[in-house]
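We were asked to recover a plausible sequence for a given structure. The inputs and outputs are reproduced exactly as logged, with field labels preserved.

PROBLEM: sequence recovery
POSITIONS: 483
GIVEN STRUCTURE:
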């Protein structure tokens, strides 16, 4: 299973590194610069506001379905029609709740068309994730990897044509960005549905109320976990906009830093998407999973620590390079926020294991504490440090959640703290910090050279500390494993 994980994560990362970074920095960033902090900040705030209600739209179906189908692939024929009917009902309810909630929070009538478009984006995203959970559950990991990047590739083509044509670029408005997302997501959903068409029974499409209730009951714990995680990861933007007189502008500044975190998170999200079905199958078949857990954790930590610390030491230069209206003082927002990438990556690995084991009640208790911590910290830090305060609160909250999930996994599976692994990661982290400090302060060369050197030398340190072991990777690729 380690070999299968390695091959698929390499394929996933390769595909996504070719497409998603280009989309984030070549399309999304350019649109932000074009429309300005005000328009993009409004879009980003409404996006996060509607995302907070995503529990109604998704209801944990994606994670629940991924686990179920990976354990019993024959369930797809029975589940697919029922789940699609359930998602249709949930989508209608979601739209209703979004607009009711908006009536109590936003008085501006001009916001409502944007809300409708953004809500439709979430509905289509949720549909694609559900279709992808079936593809991954069937073991078609490489196909899932391609679908994961398809909508972004289409967005590059559509928005690229608009942004790189002077006539359209000057007239570009945030509404065009929303329309483009709706169109490309709809095409991606149709293609994903076409891929699994032969595995689905099209004759069973009927309103099976008992089955709908069963699926809703069984997916509810997953929905609650996702909802709680959504609150402590998305409420900061809404609080920024609501608490400050210049809240929309601050939300736009936060969005600039969050874009880089989002680009980094791409890798962690892909890890989790692969690990959940793999851990589920291994736990069901009572296969040993500790090697996969350690292997995936070491790999993702090596990358997360390298990226986070390197970006931290060159935070001001990166912000000034990417954004037309950025200032060096705003680099602190990126600096604090990017450090959260390290605990977030740990969360991806250990939450995947605990989700596969259905340890959801214990996880949810931890998430509730995380929400309280996050809201309290945001309340005080936003007033004093604005967007930078929200970034501080995010990093502290994610660190708390990461340590809590690791402790929960150790208790649940009777694992033990691995002193050698702790020393490896601790020593590697301190070495990268020292490297970043020396590179950023002691050499009088172009900062981009220093930044790239820091990343490359950090990866060499990961080899030295054996967080990445080339011989083991080669052996895994050559080894034949039974699935």
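RECOVERED SEQUENCE:
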């Amino acid at each position: 299973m380690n070999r299968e994980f390695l091959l698929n994560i390499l394929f996933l990362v390769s595909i996504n590194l070719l497409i998603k970074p280009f989309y984030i920095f070549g399309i999304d960033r350019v649109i932000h610069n074009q429309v300005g902090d005000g328009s993009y900040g409004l879009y980003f705030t409404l996006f996060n506001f509607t995302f907070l209600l995503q529990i109604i739209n998704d209801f944990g179906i994606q994670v629940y379905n991924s686990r179920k189908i990976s354990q019993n692939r024959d369930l797809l024929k029975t589940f697919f029609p029922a789940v699609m009917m359930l998602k249709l009902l949930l989508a209608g309810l979601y739209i209703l709740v979004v607009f009711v909630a908006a009536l109590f929070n936003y008085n501006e009538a001009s916001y409502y068309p944007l809300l409708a478009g953004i809500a439709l984006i979430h509905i289509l995203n949720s549909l694609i994730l559900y279709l992808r959970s079936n593809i991954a559950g069937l073991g078609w990991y490489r196909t899932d990897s391609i679908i994961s990047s398809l909508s972004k590739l289409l967005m590059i083509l559509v928005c690229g044509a608009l942004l790189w044509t002077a006539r359209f670029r000057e007239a570009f408005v945030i509404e065009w960005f929303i329309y483009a997302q709706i169109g490309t997501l709809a095409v991606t959903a149709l293609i994903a549905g076409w891929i699994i068409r032969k595995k689905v029974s099209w004759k069973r499409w009927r309103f099976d109320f008992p089955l709908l209730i069963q699926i809703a009951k069984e997916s509810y714990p997953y929905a609650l976990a996702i909802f709680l995680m959504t609150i402590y990861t998305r409420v900061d933007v809404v609080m920024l906009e609501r608490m400050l007189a210049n809240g929309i502008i601050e939300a736009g500044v936060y969005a600039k830093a969050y874009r880089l975190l989002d680009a980094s998170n791409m890798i962690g999200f892909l890890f989790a998407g692969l690990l959940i079905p793999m851990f589920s199958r291994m736990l069901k078949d009572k296969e040993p999973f500790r090697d996969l857990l350690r292997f995936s954790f070491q790999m993702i930590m090596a990358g997360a620590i390298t990226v986070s610390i390197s970006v931290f030491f060159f935070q001001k230069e990166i912000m000034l390079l990417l954004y037309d209206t950025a200032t060096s003082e705003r680099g602190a927002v990126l600096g604090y926020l990017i450090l959260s990438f390290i605990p977030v990556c740990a969360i991806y690995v250990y939450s995947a294991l605990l989700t596969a084991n259905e340890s959801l009640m214990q996880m949810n208790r931890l998430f509730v504490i995380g929400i309280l911590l996050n809201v309290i910290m945001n309340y005080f830090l936003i007033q004093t440090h604005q967007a930078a305060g929200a970034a501080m609160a995010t990093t502290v909250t994610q660190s708390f959640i990461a340590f809590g999930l690791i402790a929960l996994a150790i208790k649940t599976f009777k694992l033990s703290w691995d002193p050698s692994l702790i020393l490896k990661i601790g020593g590697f982290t301190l070495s990268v910090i020292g490297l970043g400090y020396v590179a950023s302060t002691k050499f009088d060369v172009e900062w981009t050279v220093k930044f790239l050197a820091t990343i490359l030398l950090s990866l060499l340190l990961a080899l030295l500390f054996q967080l990445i072991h080339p011989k083991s990777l080669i052996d895994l690729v050559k080894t034949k494993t039974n699935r």
